[in-house]
Each structure stands twice: as structure tokens, then as C-alpha cells.
Amino acid sequence: MDIANFRAQLVGDGARPNLFRVTLNLPAGISSSGSFNEKFSILCRAASIPASSLGAAPVAYMGREVQLAGNRTFADWSVTVLNDEDFSIRNTIEDWMAKINSHRTNVRDESFISATSYTSNALVEHLGKSGEDNIIASYNVLALWPKELDAINLAYDQNNQVEEYGITFSMDYWERTTTETGTNT
Question: Are 144 and 171 in contact (CB under 8 A)?
């Protein structure tokens, strides 16, 4: 194989991991200040296209193990957010988590009794190099809720940095959407 063949196979000079947008929708019971979706999309510094795995169901046959396909599982999904001085994104996630299970009383808010009331969804869009309207891949992350909110490390020697923290979401599943028709696959 020569370099010209390699270049020909690398469509669009390859996808770039720094071109993405994440939209996080909030459940109905969570209020936020300002435009949460727009701010989250801008300050979400890192994310991933979500992962899944197919399990194996081994079956023994005459001293050999045959591997049959098992059920699909979905890993937790994490994002990294830049923090600003109004803490609005972190405060909103803290409120969401507190309504699922409060710090002091260890109970769930009345408006979050069913799973459909405290879960929501997110959209991960992988963008092409020609601009925000060039979506090359799109994934709906469905029935998610914040499982873990990372600490924000504070230290005297952390000069010239912007605070950031991670949020880990548990989810039921994700679907890839085709950008041409908007249908799920």
C-alpha cells in the first residue's frame, strides 16, 4: 500500500475529536437559570461517543466452548465541564441529584418518584471541519441521570487554569441517528 492509497481511504482527511457539540436536556422537575442547553453545549469541554458491549453466552459442547452472542450492555457516559463563577451548570446538576436522593433526609423528591420523571436525554453531535451545520455523526443518549459529580480540586499552585469537573451519567441505552434522515439505527 502506498501513501496515495492511504490518503484516498481517509475520507475528509479524517474526523477530528475536537469538533463536537453536546446538548443535555433536563427533566421537567429541574429549573435552571438562563439558557442551560446553550451554556452546557459551550462549556462541555470533553465528551465521548457512548460505548456498548455485547456479552457472550458460552455453551459447552463435547469438551469445547462455543461462544454465542449475548445481551447488550451500556457503559456509563461521562463529560467534562468547564466551571465559571456563577456555577450554574454545577448547581443544576447538584439540584438534579439532590431531587433523586437528598443529602440530609436520604429521600427522593415527590416529583421524581418514577424513573421517567428523573431521567432525561442528551444529544452528542460529531461535527465535520466545514462548520457547525456539518454533522457527520449523531447519537441520542436516552434515559440518563447523573450518577457521579466529580470534585473540583482547589490549590494555590493552580495558576492560569480554568476549573473543570466531570459528570458521570447512567443510561438505559443510546441510539445512533443518521444525519440524512434523522432516523434511528
Answer: yes
